[in-house]
UniProtKB/TrEMBL annotation:
InterPro entries (UniProt xref): MFS, MFS_dom, MFS_trans_sf
Membrane topology designation: Multi-pass membrane protein
Keyword Cell cycle: no
Record domain Major facilitator superfamily (MFS) profile: where: 10-413
Organism this protein belongs to: Pseudonocardia acidicola
Keyword annotations from UniProtKB, A to Z: Membrane, Transmembrane, Transmembrane helix, Transport
One protein family per Pfam: MFS_1
Localization of this protein: Cell membrane
Record protein name field: MFS transporter
Stretches that traverse the bilayer: 42-64, 76-95, 101-126, 138-159, 165-184, 226-244, 250-272, 284-303, 309-333, 345-371, 383-405
Highest taxon above the source species: Bacteria
Keyword Transmembrane: yes
Amino acid sequence: MDVRRRRWVVWSVGLFAYLVGVMHRTSFGVAGLDAADRFDAAPAALSGFVVLQLLVYAGLQVPVGVLLDRYGARRLVITGALIMSAGQLLLALATSLPLAIAARVLVGAGDALTFISVLAVVTVWFPPRQVPTMTQMTGLLGQLGQVLSAVPLAALLHGPGWTPAFLSAAGVGLLAAIAVTAVFRNRPPGAAAAPATPSPREIVDGLRLAWTEPGTRLGMFSHMGTQFSGMVFALLWGVPYLVAGQGLSATTASVLLTVFVAVGVVAGPLFGEFTARHPMRRSWLVIAVIAVTAVCWTVVLVIPPPVPAWLLVLLVVVLALGPPGSMIGFDYARTFNPGHRQGTAVGIVNVGGFSASLLVTLAIGVLLGVAGPGGAGGYTPDAFRAAWTVQYLVWAIALTGVVVARRKARRKMAAEGTVVPPLREVLAVRRQARRRDDRSDARPPSST
């Protein structure tokens, strides 16, 4: 098999492993209310499941980036798949809250090893011009794992029950580990060997250099501002909000989560192509996604519930733009850092969105416990309405970070000889070029 065909086979297996990882990550979102009954968990305790999962995920991103640069992607993806399967197996058998929380911690740890490892293989196997689009395709097609949790896993959960549902999830994870072992490879045949194992001092220096690079911080704040709202919605609070806060049926809520995934799959390649064609304007797309998401949530929260069904569909569509928007953060890590520390830089970027997601998930759980009529809290429309407002603080922090880091990155680029002209100048030049073309088309043909 030639390299061109083999790269697609390797990528497909890596994508499958990530897709299964997303299924594990989001499986608790469709099981939130069932878990509340099974473990007699209050809203704050329920959010604690996902908060610990995300805390482990976010906390491991930088160490995983260092391990990726040192040991390669294949080992990390196999290990991650096995750890997540163990977590789902434990959750299937758990009957007490501590065991269930431990299970989600295992899922978070395995999940942390998977995505950035698959992205590292994409960077090595595909030509540079294709990498932004393939990054988007990996991130967005991987979100089909939410469909696995929203449809077949939910059907098993509400049919055979809790234990068969999560045992099935563990089995799929084991299948992913076997497939990766058989097919997945770190680099194409004949490619340059991996750099020598860095010393502890070199690891520390790599971390410092990756963080001090303005482009890495620009990627982190971009990832933070675009990802967290959709992540919190899909990971835990979307289904309870749609069912208890807006009066939809559980089936309709699952359908909307499927719409979330489908819109993201369509938007991903478009975002990737824009990033590849206009690398100097990536930040404007990030800012646009953050602004549109904040505006749409504002409209939904201002209207007393239940809001019109079309507005909830619009909200889900807008939230679906967040994951492809967050992929731009990884493109910053790739283009602003040399190859030997890209794993570390990608890990730093990934901390942004997942740290924000875990804080917002926890805050919503706490606010649901104290908001509502008379301070009684609970899963009420008014409590949900108050709880979702915590997002505005994160958007403000992320937008500020994007603007400040972008300014520093452009200063560094200018010092290195690459000047990014203001957008108004670019648009003015394009308008002048169009006018010249129009005048040229309007001239009568030559008589000669």
